[in-house]
Specification:
InterPro entries: ACAS_N, AMP-bd_C, AMP-bd_C_sf, AMP-dep_synth/lig_dom, ANL_N_sf, Propion_PrpE. By secondary structure, this protein is of the alpha/beta class. The protein is built from 19 helices and 32 strands. The strands form nine sheets. It has an eight-stranded mixed β-sheet, sandwiched between helices. Strands 5-4-17-16-18-19-20 form a seven-stranded mixed β-sheet, with helices on both faces. It binds adenosine-5'-triphosphate and magnesium ion.
């Protein structure tokens, strides 16, 4: 069979081990070459300035622009090719913008923002559903040197208000409403309330009216985008060339382990990192179509809906809707229709599909698709096998964080084709000097199969966070202080590396369970429980126990809820699941209880909120829940614990 991976001439001769080694040992030479993947208006003077660790500046003195690299530079060669494909199964719209059209729309948006008084370095907060104007707004900010701060659409007014106060935006771009599962979610009342709550007041609010929810306009503050766009129909707004370290955006982490952190990203390093990842990791080529099912409110949306694919000259699909509406075949129908070659989603979305009829996945011609990339949460073996078999395509797990902006661990098929191992996101990605550290001593663990904290030796490679927005001290304290005296960035994840260099993420460092002196990752127990055929999804937390220190507690969602319809059948199933864990991991890992719920508490980005479950189980305050998706899910846990 012909290899589905396309490799360039210069990398065909290189083994991944050599490629990786060079990225660490000859950092400057390596990244100097990668920097050729983007356009520079002015060449950089220095590859990396690491004179004030842990801060790193990449491509110092170079001038570039993210929007130029994502849009303008493609107009000449592929102006008529698809750039942005907008599909909404909520409003039944489908609209394609070529690179030339995208170029025009971004300039109209840029001119509108300039007219509202936005200047280079100003912040623009984007509180939008998944509509093309959201992409125009992000790209327009990059174009004029403004810093965007995208806040996930539908966040409640309190969370929005705190982000307004943190970003202090000159302008907020928003829309009348989003839509989810056919239900209109009005944004404007939430936004108005947030602005009332916030200490900082934006000068202007730019409103995109989708005609979904009528809204009140604040005189003198709210502007209508349709009118401004018309006024600037023929606008020509040149790109503002910025120094490589100029911040392109700020973005918050998911808030899974506590209060979200505001990540600040640069321009040049990010553009280079994304361009390189499109080539070496995703193997996407100009003229092809990329489909990421994430949302612009998350880092995957920034890197792999908007900037990455466009920088690579690919068309990108922007999808507004659910994965199972009108039916579970919707994504795959888009793969067929737009000949998607690279797809990116999350294990949590795959688990949603897993509960549906598997026939939906085989209805469409998926021959264009090379691979499905998954990230965001541990990919358990049953889910990975199910989706791999259903699609008949390689499934590529990749591990990273909002902070890093692009993968830390994966398989770089663009360099050397390598097999995946179930349960492992793969090896350290070029540029990342990944270490495993003993949690107690901070000593580096070099042997195979030792458990430790996943850390990265500084400097972080290009594209990673520059600092915490407006809080250098928090950046140093949060990420770089766990091992005193060492320049090591902690991921706060716990992992293991096997003899072949493949990593396995065992859970968050917060989620390590200590049962009678045995240290277990929640992930290991979850994986074992998920292998029981009745289980669709599970969360395991450690709960304080007088006798054992801690015990594991499991909350599972069943594929067929009827399996636990009454107490007797629930108890029988609980026993069966415990037996599975006993057999696979040993009795020490056996959860004290396995309880059944219809839905698990998650962040809006789809991550399990284990800390909230744990707090409820221990009768504590669950802390910051502003990023939680569905409060009813935590209530179910509370009810079970109370009985
Ligand atoms: P916060 O930092 O606010 O608590 P968060 O860590 O969930 O939230 P993100 O940056 O969205 O915010 O998520 C990154 C985290 O997601 C990683 O640190 C890791 O715990 C988890 N993760 C991401 N991808 C994978 C993967 N492929 N396998 C296992 N875990 C993953
Ligand atoms: Mg995190």
């Amino acid at each position: 069979m012909k290899s589905p991976w396309i490799r360039s001439k210069e990398t065909r001769m290189t083994s991944y081990a050599d490629f990786y080694r060079r990225s660490i040992d000859d950092r400057e030479g390596f990244w100097r070459e990668q920097a050729d993947l983007i356009d520079w208006q002015q060449p950089f003077e220095q590859v990396c300035d690491h004179s004030h660790p842990p801060f790193a500046r990449w491509f110092v003195g170079g001038a570039t622009n993210l929007c130029h690299n994502a849009v303008d530079r493609h107009v000449k060669e592929r102006g008529q090719q698809n750039a942005l494909i907008f599909v909404s199964t909520e409003t039944h719209q489908e609209r394609i913008y070529s690179f030339a059209e995208l170029h025009t729309e971004v300039q109209r948006m840029s001119a509108s923002l300039l007219a509202l008084g936005v200047k280079k370095g100003d912040r623009v907060l984007v509180y939008m559903p998944m509509i093309p104007e959201a992409a125009f707004a992000m790209l327009a900010c990059a174009r004029i040197g403004a810093i965007h701060s995208v806040v996930f659409g539908g966040f409640a007014s309190v969370s929005l208000a705190s982000r307004i106060d943190d970003a202090e935006p000159t302008v907020i771009v928003s829309a009348d409403a989003g839509s989810r599962g056919g239900k209109v979610v009005a944004y404007k009342p939430l936004l108005d309330e947030a602005i009332t709550l916030a200490a900082h007041k934006p000068k202007k609010v730019l409103m995109v009216d989708r005609g979904l929810a009528p809204f009140d306009r604040v005189e003198g503050r709210d502007e209508d985008y349709a009118a401004l766009r018309e006024q600037h129909r023929h606008a020509e707004v040149p790109c503002e060339w910025v120094e490589s370290s100029h911040p392109s955006y700020t973005l918050y982490t998911s808030g899974t382990t506590g209060k979200p952190k505001g990540v600040q990203r640069d321009t040049g390093g990010y553009a280079v990192a994304l361009a390189a990842s499109m080539k070496h990791i995703f193997c996407g080529r100009a003229g092809e179509t990329y489909f990421s099912t994430s949302d612009i409110g998350w880092v995957v949306g920034h890197s792999y809906i908007i900037y990455g694919p466009l920088i690579a000259g690919m068309a990108t699909i922007m999808y507004e809707g659910l994965p199972i509406r009108p039916d579970a075949a919707i994504w795959w129908s888009l793969v067929e229709k737009y000949k998607v070659t690279v797809m990116f989603s999350a294990p949590t979305a795959v688990r949603v599909l897993k509960k549906q009829d598997p026939a939906a996945l085989s209805k469409h011609d998926l021959s264009s698709l090379r691979a499905l990339f998954l990230a965001g949460e541990p990919l358990d073996e049953p889910t990975a096998k199910w989706i791999a078999q259903s699609l008949g395509k390689p499934i590529i797990d990749n591990y990273w964080q909002t902070e890093t902006g692009w993968p830390i661990l994966t398989i770089c098929n663009g360099i050397e084709q390598a097999p995946s191992k179930f349960g492992s996101p793969g090896k350290a990605v070029y540029g990342y000097d990944v270490k495993l550290l003993d949690e107690a001593t901070g000593e580096e663990l070099t042997g195979a199969n030792q458990k430790g904290v996943v850390a990265i030796a500084g400097p972080l490679p290009p594209g990673c966070m520059q600092t915490v927005w407006r809080d250098d001290a928090r950046f140093v304290k949060t990420y770089w202080s766990s091992i005193p005296g060492k320049q090591l960035y902690s991921t706060f994840d716990w992992g293991i590396r096997d003899e072949d260099g493949y990593f396995f993420i065992l859970g968050r460092t917060d989620d390590v369970i200590n049962v009678a002196g045995h240290r277990l990752g929640t992930r290991e127990i979850e994986e074992s429980i998920a292998s029981h055929p009745a289980v669709a999804e599970v969360a395991v937390v450690g709960v304080a126990d007088q006798l054992k220190g801690q015990v594991a507690m499991a909350f599972a969602v069943l594929r067929d809820p009827a399996r636990a319809a009454d107490d007797a059948s629930a108890m029988k199933l609980e026993g069966e699941i415990m037996k599975t864990v006993d057999e696979q991991l040993g009795a020490v890992a056996r959860p004290a209880r396995v309880r059944f719920v219809s839905v698990l508490p998650k962040t809006r980005s789809g991550k399990l909120l284990r800390r909230a479950i744990q707090a409820v189980c221990e009768g504590r305050d669950p802390g910051d829940l502003t990023t939680m998706e569905d409060p009813a899910a935590l209530q179910q846990v509370k009810d079970l614990v109370a009985h």
